[in-house]
Write a structure and sequence with these properties.
Distance between the termini: 39 Å
Helix content: under 10%
CATH topology: Porin
Number of helices: 3
Order of helices and strands: HHEEEEEEEEEEEEEEEEEEHE
Shape: globular
CATH class: Mainly Beta
Largest sheet: 18 strands, antiparallel, barrel
Number of strands: 19
Number of domains: 1
């Protein structure tokens, strides 16, 4: 276990044993447990042909049931189970799946407790399985589009002031045993300063690792991965215009397996978004965006220059058909895009996007271009119906992998929150 985990767990241990030393308010009567949940069904028509030779139809079902309790005025406990599956995923040997008793998609999605105002300070402490989401989710997000979503196991401390929030966390991603041997971990420090509704500044430092040791060579005994990501996110608005700027760097060492020499990580991310509100009544907004993820110019040398988006929600910023950045490999990515968002009538939202994708290494051919249309309608607060359609035109860099013909993808989804 690393130092960051020791510090957070020590605070948690003391707070659980001696709550009367940490809390100024008297315990309140225990309120009832609040039950909430979500049912989401999504059908996708997938003609990307990444894993099949022809278009496929997939039905995804996600069901969540959450219990939230406040047994004391300073203590919150949340437990949420989730069943995530595709329809027809039962064992076909059991009456063609209709009598299959297995529930491989069932899991504990969230399970955490939070203590407010630890040591009578504006600090909240949360421990357990929990979501992490910051800024535009380009580096740390819940990945809500995926059928399972993303959560982390660990401890998190949050300092909150009227215009300042600082989060410190230590989480364990995977481990073959309860100890730290060959574990993978994720740590972070993220601060957000928001002096007004039109100005926000984030500073962050992230670290993810894989403590599995290299077995031979000059790096024998060293960890396979030690990656540090640092940077800033700035957002401001002025009248009908707005601006977002983001920059991040990555340094550290990484090996592709436990028998090769590590490479030095030297990578970067940069993005800029400018938007203008064209009509206030319909919330019509035009946005122009440019983002660069660095690529590796010489994969055979001792440096890894390809930026890793760590735990970002990649479906959100790089086009909904999800060809990139996954298919960009080590070449990096340049995404030049424009979109128009509008809510012409109450409950209806529309988003039209266009993307042009290039490798960051300028000597390479384009990845292609993409057009996305997404529409959502919420007639009542608990229920939302949404759908979308995407077209991707392959560029020279991808034609050898996916062919020259246009690729299509679409979805329709219904979500009920209760």
């Amino acid at each position: 276990m690393h130092r960051g985990q020791y510090c957070l767990l020590a605070v948690l241990f003391v707070s659980l044993l001696f709550p009367h030393l940490l809390l100024s308010q008297a315990p309140a009567p225990a309120p009832p447990v609040a039950i909430s949940g979500q049912i989401r069904l999504r059908t996708e028509i997938d003609d990307r042909r990444l894993s099949a030779d022809e278009a496929v139809l997939v039905h995804l079902l996600r069901t969540r049931l959450r219990a939230t309790a406040r047994p004391l005025s300073w203590l919150t406990i949340v437990a949420e189970i989730q069943d995530s599956r595709y329809l027809g995923s039962g064992n076909p040997s059991n009456a063609r799946g209709t009598t299959d008793p297995s529930a491989d998609g069932l899991d504990m999605h969230q399970a955490w407790g939070q203590i407010d105002s630890v040591f009578n300070l504006p600090i909240d402490l949360r421990f357990g399985r929990q979501p992490l989401s910051f800024a535009n989710e380009r580096l740390v997000g819940v990945s809500n589009w995926s059928n399972a979503g993303r959560v982390f196991d660990g401890a998190r401390a949050t300092l909150h002031q009227p215009d300042l929030a600082v989060d410190l966390w230590a989480t364990r991603l995977t481990a073959p045993s309860a100890g730290p041997t060959e574990s993978q971990n994720f740590y972070g420090l993220w601060g957000n300063w928001q002096p007004s509704s039109d100005l926000s500044l984030d500073l962050f430092l992230l670290r993810d690792d894989n403590t599995r040791m290299i077995r031979r060579g000059e790096d024998s005994g060293a960890a396979m991965l030690q990656r540090n990501t640092f940077g800033t996110f700035f957002k401001t608005g002025f009248g009908m215009f707005g601006l977002e700027l983001e920059g991040a760097g990555q340094v550290g060492d990484v090996a592709s397996n436990d028998t090769v020499q590590r490479k030095s990580i030297q990578a970067f991310l940069a993005s800029a978004t400018l938007w203008a509100t064209l009509d206030e009544a319909s919330k019509t907004r035009l946005s122009l965006l440019g983002v660069v993820l660095s690529g590796d110019g010489a994969p055979g040398d001792d440096r890894n220059e390809a930026f890793n988006t760590v735990f970002g929600t990649n479906h959100k910023p790089y086009g909904t058909i999800d060809y990139v950045p996954d298919l960009s490999g080590s070449l990096g990515l340049v995404d030049m895009s424009a979109n128009v968002a509008s809510a012409p009538v109450k409950g209806l939202r529309m988003l039209l996007e266009g993307h042009y994708f290039l490798p960051q290494r300028i000597a390479s051919d384009p990845f292609g271009s993409e057009v996305d249309l997404t529409v959502s309608w919420r007639s009542a607060a608990p229920f939302e119906l949404s759908g979308g359609f995407s077209v991707f035109l392959p560029g020279e860099s991808l034609k050898a992998r996916i062919g020259e013909d246009p690729r299509y993808w679409g979805f329709i989804a219904g979500q009920w929150d209760f």
